[in-house]
C-alpha cells in the first residue's frame, strides 16, 4: 500500500492543556472523549481518557482491570507510533499523561473492521471451526457499529444501500487494515506473540481515511507463540486469571516505541 500523502505536523506541541476547557463529548465502555471548548487552536483535536472499566459480551459482563487505562494508553500510543514509522497515519498526536492521549478529531466511519488470521471467538463459532485453525489468507469482516443491534456483520453492498459511508472510503480502510495486519503480525511475531485477530476503526480527517480509536489487548487477540496462552482481554472474558499480567507483558513489548 502506498504511504499516506497527508502530512501531519511531526513537531506538533500542544500548548498547555487547560482542563477548565475540557468538554466531555462521549463516554464509552473503555474511553472518554473530550473536546477543547472555546480554544480555536485546538478545534480539530480531542483528548482521549482511557478507563479501567472492562466489559464483555456486549456489556453483559462488567468489571475492572486494575490500571488497564494506563496500560491501554501506553500500548495504543506505542503501536500508533510504530505504524506511523511504517507510513500509516492515525489520529494519534501524543501521549500527554498516564491515561490520556491527544488526537485529531475525525469524522468516524460507523464500522468496525475486524481482521483475522486464526479462528477464534465469534468466527470460530459461526463457521464451526476449532479455535486455533489458521486461515489460508487473512479474513476481513465489516460490522456496523450499533450496541442495540450487537454490531451486525455487513457486506459492501450495505454501505450505499443504508447510507453508512462512501464505499470507496471503506475500501481504503480495508486496504490499510490489511497492511496493518502485516506490520503488527511481524512485530508481535518478533516478540514471540501471534496476532490472532483484531478490531480497527477509521475516520476521515481533511477527507483522508485515517486510523482511529485504539489498538490494545481489549481489541486484539494475542497468543504466546510457544504456549498458545492468551495475552489479551479473553483472560477477563473467560475468567482465566492473570489479566493485569497479560496487559503488562504487552506494555513491555511495545514500550520500545
Ligand atoms: P469476535 O468477533 O471474535 O468477538 O472479535 C474479533 C476481534 O475483534 C477480537 O480481537 C475482539 O477483541 C475485537 N472486537 C470485536 N468487537 C469489539 C468491540 O466492540 N470492542 C473492542 N474493543 N474489540 C472488539
Description:
By secondary structure, the chain is of the alpha+beta class. The chain has 2 domains: 19-107, Phosphorylase Kinase, domain 1 (2-Layer Sandwich); 108-245, ATP-grasp fold, B domain (D-amino Acid Aminotransferase, Chain A, domain 1, 2-Layer Sandwich). It has helices spanning 68-85, 121-127, 156-161, 167-190, 234-237, 243-254; strands spanning 22-27, 31-36, 45-50, 53-56, 61-64, 92-97, 100-104, 107-108, 111-118, 134-144, 153-154, 193-205, 208-212, 220-224. Strands 8, 9, 10, 11, 12, 13 and 14 form a 7-stranded antiparallel β-sheet that branches. A 5-stranded antiparallel β-sheet has the order 1-2-3-7-6. A hairpin with a 3-residue loop joins strand 1 (22-27) and strand 2 (31-36). Helix 1 (68-85) packs parallel to helix 6 (243-254). The longest helix is centred in the last third of the chain and has 24 residues, at 167-190. The structure holds guanosine-5'-monophosphate. Guanosine-5'-monophosphate (5GP) binds next to strand 9, helix 2, strand 12 and strand 14.
Amino acid at each position: 500500500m502506498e504511504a499516506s500523502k497527508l502530512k501531519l505536523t511531526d513537531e506538533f506541541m500542544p500548548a498547555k492543556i487547560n482542563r477548565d476547557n475540557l468538554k466531555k463529548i462521549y463516554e464509552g465502555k473503555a474511553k472518554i472523549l473530550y473536546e477543547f471548548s472555546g480554544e480555536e487552536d485546538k478545534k480539530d483535536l480531542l483528548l482521549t481518557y482511557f478507563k479501567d472499566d472492562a466489559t464483555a459480551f456486549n456489556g453483559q459482563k462488567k468489571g475492572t482491570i486494575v490500571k488497564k487505562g494506563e496500560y491501554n494508553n501506553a500500548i495504543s500510543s506505542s503501536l500508533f507510533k510504530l505504524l506511523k514509522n511504517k507510513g500509516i497515519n492515525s489520529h494519534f498526536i501524543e501521549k500527554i499523561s498516564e491515561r490520556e492521549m491527544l488526537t485529531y478529531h475525525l469524522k468516524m466511519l460507523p464500522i468496525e473492521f475486524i481482521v483475522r488470521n486464526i479462528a477464534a471467538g465469534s468466527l470460530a463459532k459461526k463457521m464451526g471451526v476449532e479455535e486455533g485453525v489458521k486461515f489460508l489468507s487473512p479474513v476481513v469482516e465489516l460490522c456496523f457499529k450499533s450496541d442495540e443491534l450487537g454490531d451486525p456483520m455487513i457486506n459492501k453492498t450495505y454501505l450505499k444501500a443504508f447510507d453508512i459511508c462512501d464505499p470507496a472510503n471503506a475500501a481504503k480502510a480495508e486496504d490499510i487494515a490489511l497492511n496493518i495486519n502485516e506490520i503488527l503480525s511481524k512485530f508481535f511475531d518478533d516478540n514471540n506473540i501471534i496476532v490472532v485477530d483484531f478490531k480497527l476503526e477509521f475516520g476521515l480527517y481533511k477527507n483522508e481515511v485515517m486510523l482511529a480509536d485504539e489498538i490494545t489487548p481489549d481489541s486484539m487477540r494475542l497468543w504466546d507463540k510457544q504456549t498458545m496462552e492468551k495475552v489479551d482481554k479473553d483472560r477477563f472474558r473467560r475468567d482465566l486469571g492473570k489479566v493485569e499480567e497479560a496487559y503488562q507483558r504487552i506494555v513491555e513489548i511495545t514500550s520500545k516505541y
